[in-house]
Amino acid sequence: MKKVTILTVFALFFGAVFSVQAQESRTGVGVRGGANFFTFGGSDASGADYDNRVGFHAGAYATLGLGQAFAIEPGVFYSIKGTQNDDLVNSRAVLGYVDVPVLARLYLGNAFNVFAGPQVSYLVNSRFEGDLFGSSVGFDTDAIRDTDFGLVFGVGFNLPRGFNLQASYDYGTTPVFRNSEANVYNRGFKLSLGLTL
User: Where is the signal peptide (predicted)?
Assistant: First the structure.
């Protein structure tokens, strides 16, 4: 069921991409990727020793221009989130999601822009890991919720030849763990390099 949902999201996204009309000045399709710096946030995470864990994200987006100063930008990205704990075994959660953001982008001049919007994330894989006797060990887990809803906001900068840079923050609003009342959420920064084709 999860694979069917993800395939449907990809089909709808790329269907929208190919229907884009290129005459808008802010309209285009592109690819984007970069580094993630995620941890667990929320009231029940504040007392724990959670540290930022470095991951990555990569995917595609479509910018749908609505005049010179405004655009809507849906996207589909694979993203590694999670956290790590500076304990005896360097324990960590490695969570793989398909992120589907829909951003509203406001251009403040030709290059600089700010953006914000909702995001739904579909869990693809989840694993708890640690280091034991010099080796990494771990196990897959079904303790993580399948769907995560959140907000994304950040700043972007357009470079020559279609390249762009952006920094964003993901603010998860769905508790990470299923069958738990713990207020623990996916929270983290992304630094990205994109190319509008």
Answer: 1-22
Architecture field, domain 2-196: Beta Barrel (2.40)
Q: Which residues pair with 138 in a beta bridge?
A: 129
Q: Which residues of 96-128 are buried (b: 16+ CB within 10 A; e: fewer)?
A: bbbbbbebebebeeeeebebebebbbbbbebeb
d(CA 62, CA 197): 10
Cα separations (Å) of 28 from 8, 74, 110, 197? 22, 11, 15, 7
Do the beta carbons of residue 167 and residue 154 sit within 8 Å?
A: yes
For tokens 């290129």, the residue is 22
What is the spatial distance between Cα 139 and Cα 45, in angstroms, rounded to a whole number?
22
35-46, pLDDT tens digit by residue? 999 998 887 766
The radius of gyration of the chain from alpha carbons, rounded to an integer in Å, stands at: 18
Read off the tokens for 177: 């763990």
Whole-model pTM: value is 0.82
Residue ranges of domains in the chain: 2-196
Lookup: tokens for 137: 């060990």
Q: What is the dihedral of CA 139, 151, 166, 75, to 10 degrees?
A: 80
Query: Beta strands 147-158 and 163-172: pairing type?
Result: antiparallel
The overall average pLDDT reported for the chain is: 85
